[in-house]
Amino acid sequence: MSDIWVHLPVDERNVPPMPLASRPDSLKGLKVGLLENGKEFSQEVHEGLQEVLVRDYDVGDVQFWHKGFPAKAAPFIDDMAKDCDVVISGVGH
Questions:
Q1: Neighbours of 88 (CB within 10 A)
Q2: pLDDT of residue 61
Q3: Does residue 58 come out as left (phi exceeding 0), alpha (psi in the -120 to 50 range) or beta?
Q4: Which H or E run includes 77?
């Protein structure tokens, strides 16, 4: 895989590279969390994504998390990491 560069909007210089999170070989049987950030139509996008994940990828369970406002931090990040095998953060529009 080629390198992926992620730019963080922080006021720090010379931030060391961070490794990507490990990826499962399959989603089969896993619990997937969907983080809805409050943008218009994000709920509809996630409902469609849930349908595809269950139908095509045989996920075990899908849990929805609602942040409520796009610019707000999600106060339940630790709970998501504890409760889910994989989390997808998505937007609407």
A1: 14
A2: 93
A3: left
A4: helix 77-83
CA 2 to CA 4: how far, in whole Å?
7
Question: Among residues 85, 82, 76, 2, which one has the least CA distance to residue 36?
Answer: 76
Q: Cα–Cα distance between 15 and 10 in angstroms, integer?
A: 10
Q: DSSP class of residue 31?
A: E
Q: Which two tokens stand for residue 79?
A: 């709970």
Whole-model pTM?
0.73
Give residue-wise pLDDT tens across range 36-50: 887 888 888 889 999
Please, are residues 24 and 85 in contact by the beta-carbon 8 Å criterion?
yes
| C-alpha of 48 from chain center | 15
What are 24's two structure tokens?
């499962």
Instruction: Supply 8's token pair.
Output: 């963080």
Q: Among all chains, which residue has been given the structure tokens 């989603």?
A: 27
